[in-house]
Every structure is written in structure tokens, then in C-alpha cells.
Specification:
Distance between the termini: 34 Å
Structural class: alpha/beta
Radius of gyration: 20 Å
CATH class of the largest domain: Alpha Beta
Strand content: 5-15%
Number of domains: 2
Number of strands: 7
Strand order of the largest sheet: 3-4-5-2-1-7-6
Helix content: 55-70%
Length: about 325
Amino acid sequence: MEYLSIINKFSKNYNYSDELSALFVYSLTNNQELIIPQRLKKIYKQNFIKNMHIISELKKIYKICENMNIRQPILLKGTSYIFKFYNDNLGCRNLNDIDLLIYDKEHYFQLCELLKSNGYIFSSDYPETLTKNNIKIDLHIELINSARIAARREFVNISDWQKHIIKINDFYFLDDNLDFLYSLLHSAIHHSFSEFKWLTDAYLFIFLKKLAPQNLKKIAEINNILDLLRFCLTYLNLIFELPQEYQDTFNLPYKKNVCKYILKKTNKKNCQYLINFLFANNLQKIRILMNLLFPNKTILNLKYPQKNILAQYIQHYKEIIKSVI
């Protein structure tokens, strides 16, 4: 099973959904017929059924928005990628929730009321998360969520994202260039490359959409995220060999030793603090440190809802230490 060599570069601990992602990208890049092994057929079927249900729910939400004269939200993350890459193989992509990008706070309140009137409830401490039965919807007011680390908004602020909205087959998406940038940035600064499926999504943009690296570089320069993008591409290149044009355009590798360090860690999630700190300027570093060392009570309750305040701080500091050890 040669496709396992891809995912083994990422981690020795992977699940069947990750394996399906590796199999899918391997079959595409090697121009081979996609054949699902028997041991993966059950998870493939589960993913397929759930994704069909999610697509049906999205159509209902869009129709209700249209009827109520509410702007239809933009599909984000896996909710977007199942249409862009996995439409003919829905079972190869696991979706945990529906991610919707919204325009502003007024749009947020409109969608919340719409969803609540159609059976959704707020079921967590996160004000942007609603659920109905086994479907969870996350509403994103900003591309890069700064709720936990406020300085993120300062060093990753793509303010003109509304200029990059396109409509395909009745749904709204970010255009491929910005969608690709978002997939990598989100994977890095929110989750420190801990999810294999998001790295697969990012690579599929390069392989299937044939994005011109010069256009990506221009967008990155405009938004002052070029070094962060170079870092993300260096990490991606450790798993999927990128076209030489990308390596030349972005002068890769960049901070390769840090990328290798993160790649080797079993628990990559804790490295988000390291990545955030690495790409902040001096003033932003101070703000990040203040956020990390003295998080407010709301953040602690969101992260550790079952613990008292002392236990919350202890667990929080353990995570910080793990990110650099």
C-alpha cells in the first residue's frame, strides 16, 4: 500500500479517515483508479451518508435565506472542499461540522435567528456554534478566529476577503487562491498542522486547481503574510513534494528546522502558540504573551469547562510548556 508512505510522513498515529485522504490524493497524483480497501469501506460509507445529509441541509439553509431576503453565507473549510475536490468521492472526506463565513455581526444575528427557528440550538459555550441532531454549524465572523489569541487579528488580517467571493452551482465560495491561503493559514496558526485532511486539501488546490504561485505571492505580499505562507509551504513540502515553480517562487525552504520539529511531535496541536509567536512582531509578541500568560476567565471556561480556576490555569500552562518542549 504505497499511499501509506504519504501519511507516514505526517504521523505514525492516524485514523481511517486520514487514510482515506491519503488514498484519495495518491490515486489522483498517480493517475490510478480509486479503489477503496475493504477495511476502509465502512468509514467511507459513513462519510458519504453524512456528507449527503450536510449537502441537503446546506440547500435548505440557502433556500430559507433566499426566501427571507438574507444574504447567503460563504462555504468554508471542508464544507467548501467537498464540492471543489470530493464531489465524485464524497466518502473520502470526513466533515465534523458545517463552516459558514458570514459578512458582519448583523448577518450573524440574522443567521442565528434563522437557524434557531429551524431547530438549531446553541449547544456549547461558543456563541458561534449551533447544533441540530448530529449536525453542527460554526459561524465565522472573521477568516482567522482571534477569540483565544487576540493578536492573531493583527498579524493575519485579510481585510479584503469579500472581494474574493464567487458563486458556483448556487453556493458561494472563496475563490481558489484565497481558499487555498486560508486552508494553509488556518491549519497552521489555529491547529499547528495537526489535521492531515487539511494538508491534503491544501495540496489538492495546487495539484488540481493549478494555482499560479505568482498570484498567491502577490496576495500574500498585499496582506503582509508572505513569510507565514513560505513557512506553511515548507511544511507542506515535507509531506507532498511541491512543484519546482512553487519552491523557486517562494524561495523554499523557510524555517525548515522548525517545520521538522513540529512534524516530529506526536501532539502537534500545542505548537500553535509557537507558530503564533514566531510570526508576530515585537509588539504583537507582547500581546500574545499577555494573552497566553493571563487569559481571561471566559477563555479558560471555554477551554476547560469542567475545571475550577486553579486547575484551568495549571492545564493552560501545561499546554504552553508542551508547545516548546
